[in-house]
Amino acid sequence: MSDEHGFSTRAIHAGQEADPLTGAVVTPIYQVSTYKQDGIGGFRNGYEYSRSANPTRTALEECIAALEGGSRGFAFASGLAGQDTVARALLVPGDHVVVPNDAYGGTYRYFNKVAGPQGIEHSIADMGDLESVRAAIRPGQTKMVWVETPTNPLLGIADIAAIAEIAHAAGAILVVDNTFATAYLQSPLALGADIVTHSTTKYSGGHSDVVGGAVVTAKSITVPGLEDAEERIAFHQNSIGGVAGPFDSWLTLRGLKTLGVRMDRHSDNAEKVVEFLEGHDGVSQVLYPGLPGHRNHDVAARQMKRFGGMVSFRMKRGEDAAVKTCAAVSLWTLGESLGGVESLIEHPGRMTHASVAGTELEVPGDLIRLSVGIEDVDDLIADLREALDIHG
Ligand SMILES: *Cc1c(COP(=O)(O)O)cnc(C)c1O
């Protein structure tokens, strides 16, 4: 499958040749731990033990690498397992990382409470402001810049190409968490990023039925001392062992096949929900990169194909009204996570981002986050309207 093929062609076919044994058109679930060797060391197609490699996982890894236009993909048991592997593969005590000021709560917690005590230092930057990124870099010590765009839950946008230049000039590697946009809406490696990470739990899997993660490396990484990042990640994936299991890999692969059509529908529905929210009296602000008034709308328009399915908004009447609105909807499901076909609503301050309360990453109490699903949008809006007319 070449890079010349379109996105959905790659999603459906990359890494997924018909099964050589039976012709099965879908990659089988190789639910197996070990493989018969043809004589000692005579591995069939390189398969020896399923922590090191498993054919269903290989299919997923090849597919996601093809979708991101990268060199090699790695699939993990969760997004955070992948992020941990990247950090441990590439950083040593004394190194410094620049982390977004509105990073995914678990990412911030990882750098703050896991990597920190192991000697990896970090500073927080507003990734929507290039001066803030430059100021956070410690020349000689910063080895990694971590970017999420759009961010969770404030839908901030970072300029990937500009930050890649800043990071590279400082001798640091740029990692982009592409979970929200997905490979369909945004191609960080083509914009200069060195590594892409995903929580495939979200849009890539897309059906709220699997937890997983992925990492993809760029075709060429030229940051001095980190040129071998791909081999290091491969070594650490096997040495730490936080790999995706065969069934999880299969579910994620199945999800990826429809990623393009789903993201278009998520984006269509989100645009209509945004229009409704903008017109509602109870709403003080709508956060969506597709809005011309968004601080970095121009950057988003340049680097994203569309603006995706995540929408946040603030309630005029404050935290209490936000909490009550979340409880008053019936078609929207009150729940954490995002990116599934069904629409979710949540209160970040008390749910997904409760772990960052009291830190620099604390989010406003009047904020509601929506993961706009692919149901009929009129039904979604009617349900939201009912709740907002009472509590807004
Ligand atoms: C969910 C999420 C993660 C963590 O992924 P898990 O699969 O839950 O481990 C990382 N980054 C972002 C942006 C996320 O939404």
Give your account of this protein's structure.
The chain is α/β, with parallel strands linked by helices and 392 residues long. It is built from 13 helices and twelve strands. The protein has helices at residues 7-13, 55-68, 79-90, 105-115, 130-136, 160-169, 182-185, 229-240, 246-257, 259-278, 297-303, 318-328, 377-391, and strands spanning 72-76, 96-100, 121-125, 142-148, 173-177, 195-199, 213-217, 283-287, 310-315, 333-334, 344-346, 367-371. Helix 1 packs antiparallel against helix 2, helix 3 crosses helix 4 (105-115) and helix 12 crosses helix 13. The protein is globular. The termini are far apart. The mean pLDDT is 96. It binds pyridoxal-5'-phosphate. Pyridoxal-5'-phosphate is lined by residues 78-80, 104, 106-107, 148, 152, 177, 179-180, 199, 201-202, 211, 213.
Key traits:
alpha/beta, 13 helices, Aspartate Aminotransferase, domain 2, seven-stranded mixed beta sheet, single chain, globular, binds pyridoxal-5'-phosphate, Aspartate Aminotransferase, domain 1, 2 domains, 392 residues
Write the layout of secondary structure elements.
Layout: H1 7-13, H2 55-68, E1 72-76, H3 79-90, E2 96-100, H4 105-115, E3 121-125, H5 130-136, E4 142-148, H6 160-169, E5 173-177, H7 182-185, E6 195-199, E7 213-217, H8 229-240, H9 246-257, H10 259-278, E8 283-287, H11 297-303, E9 310-315, H12 318-328, E10 333-334, E11 344-346, E12 367-371, H13 377-391
Parallel strand pairs: 2-3, 2-4, 4-5, 5-6, 10-11
Antiparallel strand pairs: 1-7, 6-7, 8-9, 9-12, 11-12
Helix pairs in contact: 1-2, 1-9, 2-9, 3-4, 3-8, 10-13, 12-13
Bound molecules: pyridoxal-5'-phosphate (PLP).
